[in-house]
Every structure is written in structure tokens, then in C-alpha cells.
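Possible regression after last week's pipeline update?

I re-ran a chain I had predicted before the update to compare outputs. Posting the input and the new output here so someone can diff against the archived version. Not blocking, just want to make sure nothing changed silently.
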Amino acid sequence: MTYENDPVYQMAVQQLKQSAKILNLPDDVVEVLRHPERLLHVKIPVKLDNGKIAVFHGWRSQHNSALGPYKGGIRYHENVTEGEVVALSMWMTWKNSLAGIPYGGGKGGVKVNPKELSPRELEELSRKYFAALSRIVGEDVDIPAPDVYTNPQTMAWYMDEYSKIVGYNAWGVVTAKPKEIGGLYARVVSTGLGVAIVAREAAKKVWRGVENKTVAVQGFGNVGIYAAKYLSEWGAKVVAVTDSKGGIYNPNGINVEELIKIKEQTGSVTNYKEYKKKITNEEILELDVDILVPAAVENVITKDNAPRIKAKIISEGANGPTTPEADEILRKKDAIVIPDILANAGGVVMSWIEWANNRMGNWLTEEEALSRLEKKMVENFGSVYNEWQKRFHEYPMRIAAYAIAVERVVTAMKLRGWI
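New output (post-update):
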């Protein structure tokens, strides 16, 4: 199995084994949990605009279905690997379990740089990829959603292609669709809002709130934008932001609404004029701020830079931004690292709300959906924080979160007679 040598997969397994040790799980149960139930590898031939045919490779990993249908995003990126997809599907199992929603874990990816494709080529790629998955997805089987470089338009193509194959409008086969075809606008803001909510709840434990606390956001995509927006609206002071082209720092604070406009108009936060200095994606992590939101890519906080990180609260918007070694260093510094499977679960919680809304005939308003998300994220943070303090205080919060999530999955597997 080639995915076993992938470093992202190895990190996911290491986290699983740490949790298993705490829970005293036998090795054979760990062996079951470390592998996906199904892994599909597909080739996708696409006729390019120049008349040539390019072949792309895609994967869908269905990790565990003990708690319900597989759920997880699909990413388009030139660095996608089989191991990364498997690891992400495992993380989705724990994320859904921890969130207390009736889903298992799945993840998909296509190895492609979507920026190099025309709109027509991208649509053909998307439709052919989902057609290749059509026998293993479905409203009660596996429900994909967007991830890196996929979006509501991608989901619209997926839903339409699948609907043609099955012969009816399968609104619930994907989530985060455009509002006009069964989606909720709230899904657009949900992941970033969730990251902000748990940061706010952690701030209540430390300082009684986020008011006037300084914030740095690494990665100003969808997650980073809304995390910054909501924290700013609640009284925090966003002082630094970066994207793939660099970043800006202003200790007096950044106008987040204006920054969002600059990002939309020019493509980068570096074009914002009101800054004290330009900074890099590496430098932003080490700024003297109260709250850090890593919302870009994995493995950015490591054993090398963790000793220099000053933030008291780190709310993970990205998947896997902190290595296990860095987790332990930060714990010893009394920093609160809110793990990805808790912090960025707002997206999948809202996907569950959208999916249920589709299945029930669209019965929710946007305000009701956001209210349900808020309640769920506050509840999830409180339960994990309390369990961490009560049962697992000698470990990083991530390990506590994993232990809670893994324990729920194992219990479901035992009840179903799988182990």
C-alpha cells in the first residue's frame, strides 16, 4: 500500500496511536482504524482546448462508516497524493465523530493545478471525476463537499452529473452547493465562523473574551477571511494577515472589511496600503499576538518554530498545521491549541445541516442554520475542553479530542459487531 509511506498519512497514524495508547486500545483495533474501508483510484482523461488529451489521477478514500455515511471534501491540487487523501479521510472520521454528527469520514482529491485549466476543461474534469465516483457515492452513502480549489460551482457540476446518472435530482449527494440548487449561503461562512467561535470560547476561559485581543491569520482564503471577519466584529484586533503571495502587519489593527475588498479586487492582501511592514508566512506565526489562526496548509508549526510562537490561543483553520512534536512544545508553554478536528468543523456541521435540509425538503432559513451552527460549535468546544481538563490534562488538547472521537467510533463499531 503506497500511501503508508506518505508523511501526512504517517502523522495521522501517529496521532491515532497516541489516542489508542491513552484509551488502551489493542493493536488489532488500531490496525483496523489506520486503513480506509475503501480506496478508489481513477484516471480522468480530459480533452484540452488545444485538442490534446491530458490524463489526470484522482482518489476517493472512504475511511470509516460506523457512525454514518462517509463525509468529506474533494480538493484539486498539483501536490495531491494518495497518502494525503487517506490521511484526510481519517481526520474526517474523527472530526465528524467529535462534532457529534451522524457521518463517517471520507476525502477525495485530484492531482491537478486547476489554475492551468480553462473553465470548460475544469468542468469536464469535474464531471468525469464524479462520474467515476458515482457507484460509491450517494445521499445515504458518501456525501462530498468542497475543499482546496473546489467550490460551490464544482459541487453544482457534481450534483448535476450524478443526477443525470441516477435519473433524478439528487440534491443531497453533495453539500456547499449554490443556494439556487439546494445550498445554504451559511455554508460559505461556516468553517471560518466555526474557527472564530471556538477561539472566542477559548478566550473566555483565558481572558473572559476576545475584546481587544490581537489576532494574526495565516491564509486569507475562505476560512481565514471569515475567521478574521467575525473575530473583528466581536471586538478583537486583527493585526496581521498573509496569503500565498505574502502578508502585512499593522500593530494598530487592520480594517478587515477593507482588506477583504482588496483581496477580491487584486488577488492578494499585500496590496492593502495601511500596514507597518510586509511579512512572510513564516514570520506571521511568530508575531507577538494573543490569537493565531493558521488557515493555510499543513505542517507549518513544527518543533523548529514552536519555541518562538507567542500566541496563547491557536485555532486551527487548516488541516494538520501543527506537528505532534510542536503540540507538546506548545502545551508546555501553556498555549491552547484548538485542534483542526474541533476548530474547523464548522464546515462539516453546516454541511450536515444543509444535507438534512435537503432531505427534509428545504425547511430552514439562513438565520436558523447559523443559529444551529453556533449552538453546536459552542457545545462541542465546551465538551472537549471539559474532558481535556478532567481526563486528559497532561496531554495536548488535540490528543484529548482524538481520544474522545476515537472512543466514539470504536464504541459504534463494537455495537455493530464489527470488532
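Follow-up from reviewer: compared with the archived run. DSSP finds 13 helices and twelve strands in the chain. Marking as no regression found.
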